[in-house]
Design goal:
The chain crosses the membrane at residues 50-74. It comes from Shewanella amazonensis (strain ATCC BAA-1098 / SB2B). This is DUF502 domain-containing protein. The protein has 2 domains: 2-101, no CATH class; 111-183, no CATH class. 53% of the residues lie in helices and 16% in strands. The chain has helices at 2-39, 49-64, 68-81, 85-101, 134-140, 175-183; strands at 111-116, 122-127, 145-151, 158-164, 168-171. A 5-stranded antiparallel β-sheet has the order 4-3-2-1-5. The longest helix is centred in the first third of the chain and has 38 residues, at 2-39. The chain is flat, with a radius of gyration of 23 Å.
Length: 190
């Protein structure tokens, strides 16, 4: 009975939590949109109109940010707010995560690599960019150093280590599969 219950949980729980998360996001955005409609005195006509309004506003913002004067004004506001340390930390983190979703023409495939450890074992890592920042390269001196991310299991955090390119073993493995392997400590089989 315990095995059957566990099998049921392992299959139903991920789907249920994913659906709940997306439904909660939809409801929250819909409520925000309805609030905006109420602020301008418009009545609620149908379920989901607030969500559609928020999506339309985000799309409109995307169009506006393709215009140089708007980008310039936004840059000024952004730089002014970055003077506040707490805001800078929170906003910078959220902006960095959001930028991962849209790489604008940059390659989306990070190279999966193995790095040999002192004990003879190997760690799965990801080359996130082709070269280390200039100040770091200068400080390290000789060698072609690249930043390699070692993802920590069950966390959205990792450790970035600078490794000589010659010490890397490239692996023909998709980023998604390798990331799933690292995030689940090798437990995920799909």
């Amino acid at each position: 009975m315990k095995t059957t219950l566990t099998r049921g949980l392992m299959n139903v729980l991920p789907m249920a939590l994913s659906l709940w998360l997306f439904w909660s996001l939809f409801v929250s955005l819909d409520e925000l949109g309805v609030l905006l409609l109420e602020l301008v005195g418009l009545p609620k006509l149908f379920v989901g109109e607030g969500f559609l309004l928020v999506i339309a506003l985000v799309f409109s913002a995307g169009l506006l940010f393709s215009v140089s004067p708007i980008q310039w004004i936004w840059g000024k506001v952004e730089r002014a707010l970055m003077r506040f340390p707490l805001f800078k930390s929170v906003y910078g983190s959220i902006r960095d995560i959001a930028s991962l979703m849209n790489r604008d023409g940059k390659p989306k495939d990070q190279q999966v690599v193995l790095v040999k450890q002192a004990n003879g074992g190997y760690v799965v890592g990801f080359i996130m960019t082709d070269k280390a920042p200039e100040p770091v390269s200068q400080a390290l001196g000789d060698g072609d150093w690249v930043p390699v991310l070692f993802q920590l299991s069950y966390q959205m955090a990792g450790v970035t280590t600078l490794v000589k390119r010659e010490d890397l073993i490239k692996v023909d493995w998709s980023f998604e599969e390798a990331m799933r392997f690292n995030l689940t400590a090798g437990l995920s089989k799909s």
